[in-house]
Amino acid sequence: MARLVALLAALALGGAEALAVGRTSRVVHGSRGAARMAVTRAPKAGSAVVNGRTVVLPKFSEECSYTGITLTRYMIEFARANPELAELESILASIQTACKTISTLVRRSSMTGLVGLQGGGGSVNVQGEEQKKLDVITNDVLKNALKFSGKMATLASEEEDAPVALDEDDNYDAYRPKDIVIEEGNKYIAVFDPLDGSSNVDAGIPTGTIFGIFDEGDQTCVVDEGLPLTAAEQECLASTLRPGNALIASGYCLYSSATHFVFTLGAGVQGFTLDESNGEFVLTHPDIMLPPRGKIYSLNEGNRWAWDNALRDYVTAIQKGEGESGVAYTSRYIGSMVGDVHRTLLYGGIFAYAGDKKNVNGKLRLLYEAAPMSFLVEQAGGKAVTGLHRIMDIVPSGVHQRVPVRTRRARARAPVSYTHLRAHET
Prior knowledge:
Number of helices: 10
Strand order of the largest sheet: 6-5-7-8-9-10-11-12
């Protein structure tokens, strides 16, 4: 009855503010050309325990059929449902602003001259990789967005030599009443790869941004930014970075045919798509779960003859349809972790960047790529391992440590006939 009353009220308004109760939406156009939202479904209500605390999913009893559930509204409701995590609202707002900016920079890079190597070549990051112009610019965009949120204690980027500890906001004292003591709240650590797959930019192939958020904990480091770190400062900063099982949030932005923002706050995975007509991310993929079975494998087969025999035999078996499912797998490989993982989340199958004779530990960084994406994959019902260990359990031995990565849908146990390949199942 209540839904009928809401519908009649909306119709009485001529559709100007039609409500779709309890469901999410996507944009379509009616015969009059007015944009409205085609009904999909709302995210499931519920809760989950993450790092010893309960995370409650927001509830949506109604929504505007012209805007759907925006990321802004989602985080407002999340903060109301989880007051102790309310500061994540500001952090996610900063990240989504950075992603919108980076999306524009990537799309316009060929017209604005932002393609090619930084400084014409010769600029190398700490990984020993030549930097693209957009590597440097997007790093500044995301770093500043997080810094200006006022919630960050430490930032660690793939593009920088060492984590950067942030001083208290210079403006904070200006807002603080002199005779009142204010608790500022928690501070957080952000780890990120500002432009994953940046070598693809010049060819217009999908790229992305990966991020992870940790609680700061009890350790606080104060260093002078721009000056060489002492051994004690390096040790202190490194100690603020945790294994993936300590993450409280992670996600990615994908820059492709559309701009997608996919993340987890520890209670499932939600996917948003940028509506460029109003600049808002809109919920389009609620409660993402890896399909039980897929038929796509995503590996760099250029490294095939550098793999060990077990992995090479396993891939050959699934290519021939001789795997557990009996279905012949086909290959899809973009070369951007964000793009390949995004497709795997939606279509199922396998993603891996294995270690090989050239790169024993693979090429993906534990802190900036492997751990945040593993958190996301596990929240979507998947499994992420190095081949021998759960990635989320690995305590970093260095800021830029690399690990092999293999992801797939989690199953109760490995099939008996593939026990010898468990190190390479993904």
